[in-house]
Amino acid sequence: MINKMANWILDAAHSQIQFKVKHLMISTVTGNFSKFEAQATASDDFSDAQISFSADVNSINTGIEQRDGHLKSADFFDAENFPTLTFSSTKLNKTNDGFKMTGDLSIRGTVKSVSLDVEFGGIMVDPWGNTKAGFTIEGKISRKEFGLSWNTVTEAGGIVVSDEVKIYGEIELQKA
Q1: Would you call 32 helix, strand, or coil by DSSP?
Q2: How far is residue 114 CA from its own chain's centroid?
Q3: Is 1 inside any structural domain?
Q4: CA–CA distance, 132 with 36 (Å, rounded to integer)
Q5: What is the pTM of this model?
Q6: 120 lies in which domain range?
Q7: 58, 66, 68, 101: which has the fewest Cβ within 10 Å?
Q8: DSSP, residue by residue, 29-53
Q9: Cβ contacts of residue 54 below 8 Å, gap of 6+?
Q10: How many domains is the chain built from?
């Protein structure tokens, strides 16, 4: 039996993208992007998937309006000049519990190759006859590699914002 390629689109109502970053190296701040898109072309086992993702930087939300404004400023994402961040997969390797997905992440006009762990939750047909696929995505990036380098030092010599940013995603795709 031939495993036919299909197009998959984001089910935004059942998906979320979050990031976590250390503050003062003693606590973690969590944020998300409320507006994002994802699509894939893949066979039913997703082993050959081509995946693309984009997020609207102006939809960043950490729960603190002043901090969100700072993140959108030229100190961080520079949303005025770079309103979108994107990811496009370049390689997908099967692992014991899913995939290692490598792709090009573009933030602030800087493109870097990153690898993300992808847990494949499976495929299910919903009560309305739509075929859905679920994924959990995790990874880490260095924000400074993408030009998000603002920081300051405390009186005690500590840094305010860590370089490492953890990425978490719960993604549900629907077969088009």
Answers
A1: strand
A2: 11
A3: no
A4: 18
A5: 0.91
A6: 6-175
A7: 66
A8: EEEEESSEEEEEEE-TT-TT-EEEE
A9: 36, 37, 38, 84, 85, 86, 87
A10: 1
